[in-house]
Amino acid sequence: MGRVVLVTGVSRYLGGRFARIVSADPTVERVIGVDVIPPPHDIGGAEFVRADIRNPVIAKVIGRAEVDTVVHMNVIATPLGAGGRVSMKEINVIGTMQLLAACQRAACVKRLVVKSTSSVYGSSPRDPAMFTEDTGAKQLPRSGWGKDSVEVEGYVRGFSRRRPDVSVVMLRLANTIGPGIRTALSEYFSLPVLPTVLGFDPRVQVVHEEDTLEALRLATMGGVTGIVNVAGDGVILLSQAARMAGRPTAPVPPPLVGIVARVMRRSGLADFSPEQIRFLSYGRVLDTTRMRSVLGLEPRYTTREAFLEFVYSRGLHGPFSPEVVGRVEGALLAITSAARAV
């Protein structure tokens, strides 16, 4: 018999795409996609089950289907997409607790994959050049998705101690970006003017959505366990990213950043949370040695390539848009070639 995989958050973009990918695997007999609303997109051969992971009914779904692999992707990054911060906290933390309780009681469950985030490392002026999986946060995130993810990981570690027979892997993903996914970071770079923190130009590292999905597939179908950082190679500075997106920046003095952030959140322009402000001040870069040596992932896109793919897909234009930069680089190469030929 093939494997039976349960995917949470299947009505979201990445969850739906992942369910479709796994359902096409010949070694998988059945894929069950769980969410509170029907998916608006194609989930391939996966079966949709309307269920709330905050409700103990999720245990019945796992038990009746004899699920052996659970992929938890229903950790929400922005309160705007969850109906508010309170609802977001309930889905992320209470939902994870209920899901883990159901997995603990189900003897059939043998593998748990959790989509986590590099936000658990926080962002501070005392951060190392690169975070390894064993590096602790210099300053733990105190709000939002980062704080929720720290709690989620704590509950997952507790589950792993109670069920040592279950293989557990947590993927700490850099900010995922690409043509289809919408995140706080992609919405930020889509603003007509980018508010930045005066005096700061942080290093930004991202991972393309295709590489995120491949990392989840390898974690689900392979034998890796433990924590794995996932990110594209290289970094870009925030100022470079703004130029690639053709977006002017508006440096905001640090004492006024909080006021600007509140105005943006209330107006619905972007989720400019305190967590995001710290990221846009200090950045965050991951060591991806385990991603290659343990998970076996060689990213198709570097950070720069992933960001440019996002820029092209959104049709972002401006005085420093990729089209203009490409033409300038081509002209410079032609001039250099001509000079060498003389």
State the main characteristics.
alpha/beta, 43% helix, globular, 342 residues, 12 helices, 7-stranded parallel sheet, two-stranded parallel ribbon
Describe this structure in words.
The radius of gyration is 21 Å and the shape is globular. The strands form four sheets. The chain has a seven-stranded parallel sheet, sandwiched between helices. It has a two-stranded parallel sheet with strand order 7-10. It starts with a strand and ends with a helix. Helix 3 runs parallel beside helix 4 (144-162). It is α/β, with parallel strands linked by helices and 342 residues long. It has helices at residues 13-23, 57-65, 85-105, 144-162, 184-189, 209-221, 238-244, 254-267, 274-282, 289-295, 303-314, 322-341; strands at residues 3-8, 28-35, 47-50, 69-72, 111-117, 167-173, 175-177, 194-197, 203-204, 206-208, 226-230, 236-237, 249-252. It contains twelve helices and 13 strands.
Question: Nutshell version of this structure?
Answer:
The chain has helices spanning 13-23, 57-65, 85-105, 144-162, 184-189, 209-221, 238-244, 254-267, 274-282, 289-295, 303-314, 322-341; strands spanning 3-8, 28-35, 47-50, 69-72, 111-117, 167-173, 175-177, 194-197, 203-204, 206-208, 226-230, 236-237, 249-252. It is an alpha/beta fold and 342 residues long.
**Which residues sit in consecutive blocks of at least 5 with pLDDT less than 50?**
none
Distance between the termini: 70 Å
Record field, number of beta strands: 13
Report on the biggest sheet: 7 strands, parallel
**H/E element order:** EHEEHEHEHEEHEEEHEEHEHHHHH
The secondary structure category is alpha/beta
Order of strands, widest sheet: 3-2-1-4-5-6-11
Alpha carbon gyration radius: 21 Å
Proportion of helical residues: 40-55%
Our estimate of the beta-strand percent is 15-25%
Based on CA inertia axes, which overall geometry fits?
globular
**What is the overall number of helices?**
12
Query: What is the average per-residue confidence, as pLDDT, rounded to a whole number?
Result: 90
